[in-house]
Amino acid sequence: MQWTHWLFWGFVASVALVTVETIGQGLGFTRLNLPLILGSAFTPDRDHARALGVILHIFMGWAFSIIYVIGMGFLGGPTWYRGAFIGLAHALAICVIGWQILPGIHPRMASETHGPAATRMLEPPGFMGVNYGIMTPVAVFVTHAIFGAILGAFYR
Q1: Domain ranges of the chain
Q2: Cβ 103 vs Cβ 130: under 8 Å
Q3: How many alpha carbons fall within 13 Å on the CB side of residue 137?
Q4: Residue 18 contacts by C-beta under 8 Å, 6 or more apart in sequence?
Q5: Which of 66, 104, 135, 149 lies at a 20 to 30 A Cα distance from 88?
């Protein structure tokens, strides 16, 4: 494993992921604001939460990139399509499992069974994240495929 290549390309892929997610939200494809969701787990101030969430998401992507690199190694080595495949599998896990458990662990998110309150102001994602818009699952799959493709194409 080339640690310096992983550190560099993992960071690049993470920044690309956050950038494409932000563009998707800005263009109205999804209302998913993952930096706000991540950051608000630590602070109730929405402005600070968003800034903190961007940093957290980049570092989380960086950490996950090692799993992608190891996974591509098991699949025969890094290629853009192997990286994209792992990204699609990761997105499926996020949409089917991750969004379902998030309301139970996030301190400021309402749930399907317990509505909003003074301390729980964030809307729950719902199945596949569709509470944030019908195109949210597509956005999650596309962004994670891009993340994996960048890693697979450039990591050596």
Answers
A1: 3-154
A2: no
A3: 15
A4: 35, 54, 57, 58, 61
A5: 104
